Amino acid sequence: MRPWRYAPAVPHPPPREISIRPTTAADVPSLFAFECEPAANERAGTKPRDWPTFESRWAEILADIDGTRTRVVPRVILADGEVVGAVNISPQGDADAIGYWIAKEHWGRGIASRAVERMLEEYTRRPLYATVAAGNAPSLRILEKFGFVIESRERTPETARCVARETVSLVLR
Ligand SMILES: CC(C)(COP(=O)(O)OP(=O)(O)OC[C@H]1O[C@@H](n2cnc3c(N)ncnc32)[C@H](O)[C@@H]1OP(=O)(O)O)[C@@H](O)C(=O)NCCC(=O)NCCS
User: Fold this and answer.
1) Can you give the pLDDT at residue 12?
2) In this structure, is residue 4 part of a structural domain?
3) What are the distances in angstroms from CA 34 to CA 27, 47, 144?
4) The dihedral of CA 100, 103, 105, 109: what is its sign?
5) CA torsion angle for 165, 144, 89, 40 (degrees, to 10)?
6) In the prediction, which pLDDT does 5 show?
7) What is the C-alpha to C-alpha distance for residues 114 and 21, in angstroms, rounded to an integer?
8) What's the CATH code of the domain at 132?
9) Which DSSP symbol is given to 158?
10) Which pairing describes strands 82-92 and 165-172: parallel, antiparallel, or unpaired?
């Protein structure tokens, strides 16, 4: 029987090298494919945007790459040179929040942990917030490994981006 870890059916070894770099227009179709994966949305308690909405949001972000207007710091994650996900800083009210997303076939390889570590080294403004579906145990584990602490937990209604869910808010000070 499989242990509780959500290891892929055929486990891949951890990548040799994980890095992050600024997102470009050429990455946007891959990011959209990641956003549409049903298992990822189920884990995150989210709903994918449609392509016109997604593309126009990314056009706005990439037209303002220093983040003056959008306050977004967008990074793609490379594992052994392949784009496998994203880690972004986005505004949450007056503060900043971190979010990340890994292509399903690469789950369980330690990639999100190392990408978050790199973003926390690069982006040093604190406090930094994160919101996570309460059932997303791997995401909570990643944040707690890097010192985020739970501030609140509440039942949140369905929105354009999220299903009705229990949402945990964390902060790194
Ligand atoms: C959540 C997600 C980012 C994790 O990415 P990943 O690259 O597989 O994560 P990692 O391999 O770096 O780390 C997962 C950690 O969770 C742990 N974990 C896995 N399943 C777990 C479970 N059921 N309970 C507790 N911890 C668990 C792993 O053991 C690992 O911790 P460790 O390093 O101490 O062993 C990925 O599943 C994903 O992209 N999901 C869809 C989008 C999403 O949920 N984004 C986050 C929104 S807040």
Assistant:
1) 78
2) no
3) 11, 12, 24
4) negative
5) -50
6) 58
7) 13
8) 3.40.630.30
9) -
10) unpaired
Domain span at residue 97? Answer: 18-172
Ligand 1 pocket mutation pick from 82, 129, 141 by most atoms within 8 angstroms of CB: 141
Ligand 1 pocket, residue 103 CB under 6 Å:
no
Q: Ligand 1 centre and the CA of 139: distance in Å?
A: 5
pLDDT tens digits along 30-87: 999 999 999 999 999 999 999 999 999 999 999 998 899 999 999 999 999 999 999 9
Q: Report if residue 12 sits inside a domain.
A: no
In ligand 1, the atom with minimum distance to the C-alpha of 114 is: 12
Residue 155 lies inside a defined structural domain of this protein: yes
Q: Is the CB of 67 under 6 A from ligand 1?
A: no
**Which ligand 1 atom sits closest to the C-alpha of 111?**
7
Q: Which of 84, 88, 139 to mutate to test the pocket of ligand 1 (most atoms within 8 A of CB)?
A: 139
Answer whether residue 10 is part of any domain: no
Distance 41 CA to ligand 1 centre (A): 14
Provide the domain count of the chain: 1
Residue 58 confidence (pLDDT): 98
Tens digits of residue pLDDT in 98-156: 999 999 999 999 999 999 999 999 999 999 999 999 999 999 999 999 999 999 999 99
